[in-house]
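User: Please predict the structure of the protein below. I'd like the answer in structure-token form so I can feed it into my own downstream comparison script.

Assistant: Understood. Taking the following sequence of 338 residues as input:
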Amino acid sequence: MYIQILRGYISGYVRIIIEGYFIERLINLCIKNNIILWNSKRKKVTLLEVNVSIKDFRKIIQFAKQTKCKIKIKQKRGIPFIFNRYKKRKLFFALLFIVFVSILVLSKFIWNIQITGNASISNEEIIETLKEEGLSVGILKSKINTKEIVNKMRLNRSDLAWIGIEIKGTNAIIKIVETDKKPDIIKEDDYCNIIATKPGIIVKVNAVNGTPLVKEGEVVKENTPLIGGWLEGKYTGVNYVHANGEVLAKVWYTQNEKIELKQVISSKTERCENKYSVRINNFQINFYKTLSKFKKYDTIDTVKKIKLFSDFYLPIVLVQKTNYELEEKEVIYTRRWS
């Protein structure tokens, strides 16, 4: 029945008011001739509101004459009446058709790449690698072989432990897991010394395995041995071991910097201006003059991709350019000798 009602909406239906003393006879004739009536509402004993399709409406008029009932149309509903109502607005339907076809065509392409799981690898680097393997913004979804791209990226990049590609709407979701760098493994039984990597003053020496070669307060240079990789006993002699321990030292750093006594410093004022533009793929439309009203300014761009649904992106980007006015001040420093 619901399917038939849906067909009635597509083909059109009317809501009618039936008035008369023999409404039941009229309804029985409709049932006998397979005429579907729905959403009926009895107003009075002699008054009934009901829906009927356009196709069956003519038959009901004949039955109404037989049962001496009156029929009046209250409402006209359905697609045919909608088109009839807007048949003079041909331009509107033409544009609606163009929009529908455009969305249908755009849904066949990838318009956004979303990357998750990366920490040390930048999005730009991953996008460039994906482009080399055949996945980029603007490519047909039918040309994408996700398994092949995943296999190539895992073979060519040692910093990726796992990668997955999921296509949702016009969005390509890239999920990656980065590999952990393997630490340098040193065998515990190998002979070695602990040396200083930087010059400094020794604060504390604690040798767990090996012989301390420096004392607290001693100044050491770079590459100075701190803990020797041997142990010497009175009866056992010298045994070479893997040096292990803790050495704390104070390390100092020096830096030379040239500072001009006369400088021009820029600072933001409270004034700013917003300019908007729309980027359609590689074509940009500016809704503003290229020149700013400020002489000196700092610009921040905010980019927002347009989407119809959660994963249905369009090749349209809204760009907001915010210019913050800068005020320049001249500062003169005095020289001070210590």
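That's the full token string. The chain has a mean pLDDT of 86.
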